[in-house]
Design goal:
The protein is an alpha/beta fold. The protein has eleven helices and nine strands. α6 links the parallel β5 and β6. The longest helix has 19 residues. The protein binds N-carbamoyl-L-aspartate.
């Protein structure tokens, strides 16, 4: 792997290697790499930005951080020239951008590896890996082996802005590599799962009203926020957001299995009530910890394959 743009680049073996390595990194002191990682972010970020830095620092790397608003992009410099320039300063570029095409273009131009840290509403492959690491590890704590074809079916339910959630789009590429998973999505009007994602995976689609019923059969509930910044103004006026209101609260959790998990890539808005934060089934803050080890494992893989 040189550039890491889409989780579709990974085989099941690749995913498992990264999961096993992340698990080791949780326990052992990592090898140190004398590398420089450039974080170039054209969109806001808290978790991806900080966790890549935490991972880089733990691997003994130095970091350069640049945001579009502090760079010569403000003076009108082109995307191409920005990427060419960054090539002179570091060994890897971690890039977040608001468009799908930018990452592909960067990969064509750059002579150093590009890692996709989220490109518009397309993909977020490093988040997908930390999500599958979370699912793998949390299910294991219930005695369930994600790899095994010889176990009960696991039901994974997606809820929220399925149209714009790049984390879900990337995660389904990885989930289809594992046996005996059943997928449900609860679509919201105008924010439905893109066709190309639906074609990749067999889903059962249910509407918002059925959340109460679905919750009782769900093993992994993956919730996302409504990404208002990606919804065109004209459409925003047509979407009745009150119809899209949903909230995972104690009432919903009382109907859920005892052994299940609630995930969210964060930031959360109103879709998950803070009243469930201390419920052991709520793992959205644990995902942050898993993310550091996964990003260390990804960086190591990229350094070692150069
Ligand atoms: C997500 C993202 O940026 O795609 N957050 C993340 O990276 N952890 C989700 C979101 O913005 O809603």
């Amino acid at each position: 792997m040189f550039h890491f743009i889409s989780s579709a680049q990974l085989t099941r073996q690749n995913v498992l290697e990264i999961i096993y390595r992340a698990r080791e990194l949780k326990e052992e002191k990592p090898a140190q790499f004398n590398k420089t990682i450039i974080h170039m972010f054209y969109e806001p970020s808290t978790r991806t930005f900080c966790s890549f830095q935490a991972a880089a620092i733990k691997l003994g790397c130095s970091v350069i951080n640049l945001t579009a608003k502090d760079s010569s992009i403000q003076k009108g410099e082109s995307f191409e020239d920005t990427i060419k320039t960054l090539n002179y300063y570091g060994d890897v570029i971690v890039l977040r951008h608001s468009t799908k095409e930018a990452l592909k273009k960067a990969a064509q131009i750059s002579k150093i590896p590009i890692i996709n840290a989220g490109n518009g509403n397309d993909e977020h492959p490093t988040q997908a890996l930390l999500d599958i690491f979370t699912i793998y590890t949390e299910l294991q704590s219930f005695g369930i082996d994600l790899e095994s074809a010889d176990r009960e079916i696991i039901t994974i339910t997606f809820l929220g802005d399925l149209k714009n959630s790049r984390t879900i789009h990337s995660l389904v590429h990885l989930l289809v590599l594992f046996p005996k998973l059943k997928f449900i999505y609860i679509g919201l009007p105008a924010l439905e799962m893109p066709k190309d994602v639906i074609e990749r995976i067999h889903f059962e689609q249910l509407d918002n009203l059925t959340l109460n019923e679905v919750i009782s059969i769900t093993d992994v509930l993956y919730v996302t926020r409504i990404q208002t910044e990606r919804i065109e103004k004209i459409k925003k006026e047509n979407i009745q957001f009150d119809k899209n209101e949903f909230c995972i609260d104690e009432n919903i959790m009382n109907k859920a299995k005892k052994k299940m998990i609630v995930m969210h890539p964060l930031p959360r808005l109103r879709e998950i009530s803070t009243e469930i934060d201390n419920d052991p089934r709520a793992v959205y803050f644990k995902q942050l910890k898993y993310g550091i080890y996964i990003r260390m494992a990804i960086l190591e893989k990229i350094f070692n394959s150069k």
